[in-house]
Write a structure and sequence with these properties.
The protein is an alpha/beta fold. It has one domain: TIM Barrel (Alpha-Beta Barrel). Helices cover 37% and strands 18% of the residues. Strands 1, 2, 3, 4, 5, 6, 7, 8 and 9 form a nine-stranded mixed β-sheet that branches. Helix 6 (170-179) runs parallel beside helix 7 (194-203). The model has no long low-confidence stretch (mean pLDDT 97).
Length: 246
């Protein structure tokens, strides 16, 4: 494996340094050098697709209440940090296309019904933008990924198995992804083990750990032979990759 084969994914953009899931964080990640942007999708009250991680507005904006309870116009008036607005999916697709990078689009929703609806809306939006092949659709919900696959069998998908706390065996972890017909498995780097990495390889699943941001943590996951890294510090990841011996 070479450093060029590692997929570098900016988790919510360069989110340790800039307001997460904003165009500012995405542009900075692209400048730092990434292969893909990871984004989170919720629906507004008028069924528009917005880029925000939480189902509520308080943590990442100056608004309050549920995302699903507000219209796109209301949400676009909020400050998502440093004067940034909450982006919509079409804006990030345009940015990714212009930068020749991919997207990792995570399905969000408070209920399974909402997750299924968001999955369908994402696939339709990607099809309309002719960006399906450049996107991997991700979720903690196997049902949401199966809905995406049912709508578009060629879409690449990645599952976050549950729970990610060390209580599952490597086989149980991979079995969840295989039942979801996923191509890839994402896992909290803090609970990742060599046995999980080996089981992913045996199962034909790519493995992309999420949230290693420190030099030593990134080095440790790279030693496991993973295929991608989702990080809030793409600048640190590139620093490690520059010096790492494969």
């Amino acid at each position: 494996m070479s450093r060029s084969s590692i997929v570098r994914v900016a988790h919510r953009g360069a989110s340790s340094q800039f307001p997460e899931n904003t165009l500012l964080a995405f542009r900075q990640a692209i400048e730092q050098g990434v292969d893909a942007l990871e984004i989170d999708i919720h629906r507004t009250a008028d069924d528009e697709l917005v880029i925000i991680h939480d189902p509520t507005l308080e943590r990442t904006t100056n608004g309050s209440g549920g995302v699903r309870k507000h219209s796109l116009q209301e949400i676009r008036q909020l400050d998502a940090g440093r004067g940034e607005k909450v982006p919509v999916l079409t804006e990030v697709i345009q940015l990714a296309r212009a930068s020749n990078i991919r997207l990792c689009v995570e399905i969000k929703g408070v209920t399974e019904t909402e997750e299924l609806a968001v999955a369908e809306a994402i696939v339709r939006a990607l099809e309309a933008a002719n960006f399906l092949r450049q996107t991997i659709v991700t979720s903690f919900s196997s049902h949401a990924l199966l809905r995406a696959k049912a709508l578009e069998p060629e879409v690449s998908t990645m599952l976050d198995p549950s729970p990610q706390d060390g209580s599952l065996t490597p086989r149980q972890i991979c079995a969840q992804a295989l039942r979801a017909s996923a191509n890839c498995l994402s896992y909290d780097f803090r609970f990742l083990t060599p046995a999980i990495a080996a089981e992913c390889q045996l199962s034909g699943l790519a493995l992309w750990p999420w949230d290693p941001d420190e030099l030593d943590d990134i080095r440790q996951v790279l030693k496991l032979g993973i295929q991608g890294v989702m990080t809030n510090r793409p600048d640190v990841l590139n620093m490690v990759l520059h010096d790492f011996t494969f």
